[in-house]
Amino acid sequence: YDLHGSWEDYTHHQSCLYAHPEDTGDTLYLNVDFAVNYWLEKGAPKDKLVMGIPLYGRTWSLDNKDETGFYAPASQPGQAGPWTEEAGYMGYSEICYDQTMHEWTIVHDPAMNEPYAYYLPKSKLWVSYEDADSVTIKAQYAKDKGLAGCMVWSIETDDFSNICGAGVYPLLKAINRIF
Fold first, then answer.
1. 59 neighbors 90 (Cβ within 8 angstroms)
2. Going by fewer Cβ within 10 Å, which terminus of the chain is more open, N or C?
3. Is it the case that residue 110 has pLDDT exceeding 90?
4. What is the pLDDT of residues 122-157, one digit of tens each?
């Protein structure tokens, strides 16, 4: 995780499983599949390799509200979440709660199997994050590769109080259903 973030001047998924079709050059290596295969090719025992999955999102402030996809210009971090209080970062609970309160546009990118969302009316906030579907796909990937399992960072950013209506710890439970 943390493969992309507001330290870059464009949007991208922070923990993409595979390369995005528009990735070129060094960005072709910034994905989970490349990292896992690299470690395995270098001799890491797969039964000792644990794949990290973030339970938070990375945020950007879009430079142009008409450009909302991957590689959209974004020279500033997104606003801080109300609980994590860090610019460029929001916990899953903050993201899903804000999505219940405001009219976000949620995109499930078919090439990436990863969600991202943007909120334009009052801000130009763009966030890459995980949802139950994307963490399920990642956990299944780890299991299919024969890895030791998955770890999360970090549990307090999952929806631990059901404020979003999908039950408590929906992301952690989605991973646990696979392992």
1. yes
2. C
3. no
4. 789 999 999 999 999 999 999 999 999 999 999 999
Distance CA 90, CA 112 (A): 20
What's the number of CA atoms in the CB half-sphere (13 Å) around residue 74? 32
**CA–CA distance from 171 to each of 28, 89, 132 (Å)?**
27, 17, 5
Question: Which pair of structure tokens corresponds to residue 31?
Answer: 């994905």
Q: What is the pTM of this model?
A: 0.94
Domains with residue ranges and CATH for the chain? 25-178 (3.10.50.10)
Mean pLDDT on 91-104? 94
Q: How far apart (Å, rounded) are the C-alpha atoms in residues 177 and 179? A: 6
**β-strand partners of 73:** 10
Apex CA 74: angle with CA 123 and CA 70, to 5°?
100
